[in-house]
Amino acid sequence: MRILISGASVAGPVLAYWLHRHGFEVTVVERAPTLRKTGGHAVDLFRPAMDISEKMGVLPAIEAHVTGMDRIILRRPGTRRAVVADLTKVFTATSDRHVEIMRDDLSEIYYDVTREDVEYVFGDSITGIGDDGTVTFERGEPRRFDLVVGADGLHSNVRRLVFGDESAYSAFVGAYLAVASVPKEVGVPGEAVMYNDPGRGVGVYGGPATQDGRLVFLFRTDRPLDYHHRDTERQKALLRKTFAGMDPQVDKWLTELDRTPAFYFDSVTQLRMDTWSRGRVTLVGDAGYCPGPAVGGSTSLAVIGAYVLAGELAAAGGDHERAFPAYEREMAQLVRDSRAFALGAAKMLIPRTRFGVWALMTAARTISALPAGLSRALAKLNDKGMRLHDSMVVKDYEDYTEPVRGTTSPDS
Predict the structure, then answer these.
(1) How many other CB atoms are found less than 10 A from the CB of residue 160?
(2) According to the model, what pLDDT value does residue 316 have?
């Protein structure tokens, strides 16, 4: 049975790995000419995603690429007062098994473990998906597949082709995120520095093992901004307008936007769809249920979703009419919880008031002051709060061996 996946970031390669392991023939198509190395930000993997990665045999590689950041310094603009928070205690409070890793490193690790068993087609994209499984491409010849999976992110091309315009499903959370790659010496390896004001926050971070640093910007707006998603100069201008004059140090950081080799800018948006599947097509990860970049544990959720989708297809012997609804049932509550968590996280990380900024800094100071065991115990009292992504329960699909059926002709 032949399955086409669009997208080679995180969900795509993880899905490809498990589909191949369950006996499916897999092709991954990626619009970029090579594996994306766009200066992605640091992402978190919590216990369920760590367990899945361990089953894939890539945990040593992941642990070798952790950022290694162990503290964060929170500052108020224009003052010398700062809160120094122990990140190891913060991470211990949120998860029993957690790593922070640069997104591009994680993507490359998942790609490397699948590249020998999965067909990757770079520099191409899907232009049409027929009811009979015929897929047309921007550059390549048409091919037939039994199933097509969109793993191509928040602005999914597959979702647009099958479900229509993104605006029908996206919900603006009221905030924006930007990330820029900067020289390592702009920051201090092993620590993050953040300046917080009501409605905006900016910081720099980089781990001891990372090759460069990152500038990260978070800010609130009452309504979506006017810009094209490919117009980086307009996006940088919006950042300068929002953050100029915040603090002399921030003004220095803003000059890095003129020479950054990699830049990302997007709204913090949730996708809210009634179903992620239609006919032979389904969606996984941010393409189907993005809870909000940087605030909703979307990377861990994408890893879990890819594992569950592959498992349900294996359990159903390749029958998508059984597998897709089962996949959505298994993921539905996890997605709802992640959405709710993301809304709360956005309010906490980008507070609107001076009191909110004070509360954020006080919370960081308190967690750092508590013994690690006590902060972990307190966090475990609420599995919908700080421990949400660590407490997600995922089925084990490794033993499903029902014969795969409905394969396409090998010469189609």
Answers:
(1) 14
(2) 94
Phi, then psi, of 108 in degrees rounded to 5 = -65, -35
Per-residue model confidence (pLDDT) at position 75: 92
State the chain's maximal CA–CA distance in angstroms.
69
* Integer Cα distance of 79 and 76 in angstroms: 6
Read off the tokens for 198. Answer: 């009501």
Tokens at 245, concatenated? 């004059």
For residue 35 the two structure tokens come to 């594996």
Q: Please give the domain boundaries of the chain with CATH numbers for all domains.
A: 2-379 (3.50.50.60)
**Contact in structure between 387 and 380 (CB atoms under 8 Å):** yes
Give CA–CA dist 242/390, Å, rounded. 35
Q: What is the pLDDT of residues 20-30, one digit of tens each?
A: 999 999 999 99
pLDDT along the chain (412 residues), means of 10: 96 97 96 76 89 96 87 86 80 76 92 97 97 96 98 94 93 91 84 92 83 90 88 95 95 95 89 94 96 79 97 95 97 92 84 90 75 43 58 81 51 44
3-state SS, residue 222: coil
* pLDDT, mean over the chain: 87
Q: Which residues of 55-75 are buried (b: 16+ CB within 10 A; e: fewer)?
A: bbebbebbeebbbbbbbbbbb
Which residue type does 11 have?
A
SS (H, E, C) 120-174: EEECCCEEEECCCCEEEECCCCCEECCEEEECCCCCCHHHHHHHCCHHHCEEEEE
Alpha-carbon gap, residue 375 to 114, rounded angstroms = 38
Closest CA to 23 of 311, 377, 335: 311
Query: How would you classify the pairing of strands 25-30 and 99-102?
Result: unpaired
